Every structure is written in C-alpha cells, then in structure tokens.
Amino acid sequence: MSLQKSSAAFKASLSSAASQLPARPKINPPPPPQSAPPTTSTNATAVKRKRPAAPPAPVVYSQPSDTSLQLQHILTQVHHAVQYLKEKERPMTPREITGYLSIDETPQLLHYLRGHPKLKWDEQNQAFEFVPIHNIRSATALLAFLQNQPTAAGISIKELKEGWSGALDAVDKLEAEREILVTRTKKDNQARMVWGNDKSLDVQVEDEFKDLWHAVKVPPYEELPGMLEVLGLKPTSLDPAKMKKEVKKVERKKRANNRRVKVSNTHMSGVLMDSKALRSGLQ
C-alpha cells in the first residue's frame, strides 16, 4: 500500500468522524441594557436648568416701526407741509403742497398727511387745512370768543398765535381801544394773557372827588408800619407770630452771704493780722 493511498484513507476517516459529531449550538449576543425612564425629579431639574427666553424689545410708540431712510424723508416732508399750512392760514390742495416741497405726490405721503392730528382733510374740496387750538383769526373773532366765555378765564398769547400770525398787532390795537385787558412780561413787555374788558363796569368819578383823594398824603411804605404803631394800630402786614415780645427786666435782689465759716485758728488771733489793714497802710 503506497503512502498516497494511506494519506487519502486517513483524511476520509477524519471527515466521516467529524460529520458524526453533534452540531455546536449558536450563542446569541446579550441584548444591550435598556436605560431607565427619567424620573419626575430629573424632568423638573431639566426644566429648571433651562434658560428662559429673552424678553422682547420694548416697542417705542412715538417712533415709526419702519426706520428706513425713505420713511424718514417722508416724515420730514410732512413736518414742512404742516408748517407751510400753518403760515398760509388757508386750505391747500395736495398739488400745492407737493409743489412747495418739490416732491412727487405719493399715496404714502397723503396717508401721513391725513393722519396728522394738526391737519384736517376736506373731502369735498380735496384740500388740507391746519387746525389750531382756537379757531381765531381776526379781532372780531377774538372779542366774540372772550365775550362767550362762561367764566373770567383769559386766553394765552402763545395759543392765539398758533393759528393767527397777526395776533400781536390786533392785541395791541384792541388794548389801545380798551376792548381787552392784557398782562405783559416785565423784561421785554411782551403780551402773555388776554381778557375781555367789560365796559359796563366802568365808573365815571367826579373831579372833585379825585382832588380830595389825591390831597390825602400817604407816608412812604417804609415809614407806614412805624406810624401805625405810634397811633396804637397794628399793621396788617406784620405777622403776630414774629412779633417780639418785650421782656421786662426784673431786678434781682442780691442775696446776703450767710455762709458760716468755722474759724479753727483762734489761738493765733493776736499773731495774724488782717491783710486789708496792711493794703490800706501801703496806700
């Protein structure tokens, strides 16, 4: 038997023996550990650690939301248009306003002009008009306004000039005619307030009474309180709380010196001498 045949017979016996062995069981890998569900405290901690959302920026209502250069340009033109209508003191069409401003008439410009609190839009005449605080533009309208006041309230010159450029000249003329009463500033004598002058309250005083009135000599203001005190009268301008009360001086009697002194050197009465006698002798 050759060597090759012996080797082939050995391999055949090994293969048959291997086929007779039981099959090796397959071992599945262990499943991955499942994480425990988060507890309530963990959720609460996660919620607490969450940063709050940033608060929204405050809205400034006095400024437009759109701050583009185009909008700023339109608002500037609206301001100039309001001042132009205030100076002209008459209704004006949009074409007249845009012609003065040298700009085109746009829907956005008309929108801001119609929404301005100082302007009124007349739909029938298609015109804008400036609306002052008081609709007074003449001397007659001013007198009528003051006469119709339920109280004695006046009117400020500042409010009067807002819708009437010739207010100061008319006030000076009416004051000279004694139709109104005017208060003025001390520094530059500018009119501040205006009241109506009710001429029915004017009283004609006779010249004789005027002469008697002016014949009474009134002392100067500085000497008046002293003269009233001399006459036994108390000035009304003197505050009683500030009046100095006269303090009467009470003469106090000198108390006699009754202090008892115990003499302890009586055995030396002949030796000691009074120093007063020595001083008198020296003099």
From TrEMBL:
Compartments where found: Nucleus
Family according to the record: Belongs to the TFIIE beta subunit family.
Keyword terms: DNA-binding, Initiation factor, Nucleus, Protein biosynthesis, Transcription, Transcription regulation
A Pfam cross-reference name: TFA2_E-tether
Swiss-Prot/TrEMBL GO biological process terms: transcription initiation at RNA polymerase II promoter
Name this protein carries in UniProt: Transcription initiation factor IIE subunit beta
InterPro entries per the UniProt record, alphabetical: TFA2_E-tether, TFA2_Winged_2, TFIIE-bsu, TFIIE_bsu_DNA-bd
CC per GO annotation: transcription factor TFIIE complex
Subunit structure: Tetramer of two alpha and two beta chains.
One example GO MF annotation: DNA binding
Reported function: Recruits TFIIH to the initiation complex and stimulates the RNA polymerase II C-terminal domain kinase and DNA-dependent ATPase activities of TFIIH. Both TFIIH and TFIIE are required for promoter clearance by RNA polymerase.
UniProt keyword annotation of Ligase present: no
Family annotation (PROSITE patterns): TFIIE_BETA_C (PS51351)
Superkingdom field: Eukaryota
Annotated stretches, region: Disordered: 1-63
Composition bias, Low complexity: 1-26, 37-46
Skewed-composition ranges (Pro residues): 27-36
Residues annotated as domain TFIIE beta: 61-137
